[in-house]
Design brief:
The protein is built from eight helices and two strands. With 157 residues, it is mainly alpha-helical. It has two domains: 1-30; 31-154, no CATH class. The longest helix is centred in the N-terminal third of the chain and has 21 residues, at 32-52. It is found in: Cell membrane.
Amino acid sequence: MQTTPIDKALTRGGLRGSWNRLADLASRLIGHSLLALVCRLSIAAIFFLSGRTKVSGLLTLKPGTYALFRDEYKIPVIPPEIAAHIAAYSEHLFPLLLVLGLFTRGAALALLGMTTVIEVFVYPDAWPTHLSWAGLLLYMIGRGGGVFSLDHRLGIK
């Protein structure tokens, strides 16, 4: 059987081989720990910045935050005054834990729960955004914080 130019290009030394070597290099350079760090920092920023819009000073809820939960969010299972506090404090605590890489899986699980509530009860049309958040959070729940985390230093899985 005779080899064609396409077959030669796809052999180990050709295009396929070059692509596979590049993929192997990317896998070595961009391992779990780097991915986990990027996931932790990116999702932490989203939630922390959202939390900052709800408070003034350190953690004093703005009057508008109560109105937001009462008039716009309208979460049916929790009174708005309680939901406002839970959300504001959670959007500060869990991102901080993610940045530190401390109790990463639990913090990610808590934020996934918040994401689910936001998706189901508040902004169901924003599912593409919430799905991308869920992807980052599920990765951390499944794989943990990586070596660049306090979890790793403390031996916490």
